[in-house]
Amino acid sequence: MIFTTKKGEHYSDKKLYKFFHILCRTKQLSYKIIFDESAKYIDLTVDKFDVNKLFGISIGTDHHIDSARFGWNYLDGKICIYSYCYVDGVRSMSLLTMINPYKEYVYTITNNPTNYLFTITGGNTPPVQGFVMKTKNNWLRRKLWPYFGGNKTSPQDIRIEFN
Description:
Blueprint: E1 2-5, H1 15-20, E2 28-35, E3 52-59, E4 67-75, E5 78-87, E6 90-99, E7 105-111, E8 115-122, E9 125-133, E10 141-144, E11 158-162
Antiparallel strand pairs: 1-11, 2-7, 2-11, 3-4, 3-10, 4-5, 5-6, 7-8, 8-9
């Protein structure tokens, strides 16, 4: 399935799919993802460091309180992949790796009792892992889907393939 964020938008398409696939009943969320050339964008402002959201989970109803997501941006000719979390309302981001377009990588978030474990495999590169400590475990977990920004909207149509 290809999620497209249209030029001038924050949210990706597939609203009906996202509505029916909002609850996360497992402790692990994993997708095979391919970025294409559309992920390459130019931003010469300070906003170039903003992290776009790929996918993740929210613990409870407010993802700005407790959530774990993969994030990404395009900097200096590379697609950069981050862990992007809120724990008790405090945001943290950490660069995990840089990837190439047109290569398939498997992105996995594991919701462990005391941390979120981020794992990236594939693309003919060694596996990458990172973790973020957390304090809450809640039975209500919902999936979070592609979102462009920070404060800026998508400068062009951006397509991301999920398998």
